[in-house]
Amino acid sequence: MKHVRCIILLLPLLTALMFVGYSLMVPVVLPSTELQMVLKAMIFGIPVAILIGFGRWTGDETGTTLSGLLLFPLFWIYTQVLSQMFDPGFVATPLYGLNWNFFADTAPFVLISGSMGWFASRKTNQSLFIAIALGVLLIVIIVGIH
After folding, report:
1. Which residues, other chains included, contact 84 with Cβ-Cβ below 8 Å and sequence gap of 6+?
2. Coil, strand, or helix at residue 48?
3. Which pLDDT does position 115 carry in this prediction?
4. CA gyration radius, the chain
């Protein structure tokens, strides 16, 4: 059970660290559309692959589904906190973005990643194929959002 709590809390942190690092790197490197697409695919592809591998390896349906469901809300909270920490005019403020619009905007991503985790933990070839297809769909949607 300890590894489930770790994956639920640390997988979004890994994603947030990569995303904030990407955000800090873009002004230094001349941003090109292709580079941004590849980096976004890598930033979200790595956690998707970890989630699918974790579900397939452990077979823990509850833990993997929860990890998928909480991936985007925790990623958003971690990203807000880390982005504010790198701001020179940092003042500790509450997270004002947590409202009904936030939940409505992230609901498709939450459902797709939760379903992906559930299918990955089923340990059949068909469910693994569905989990990978959902992961590719999630990455394609995220890469397409500007």
Report:
1. 90, 92, 93
2. helix
3. 94
4. 16
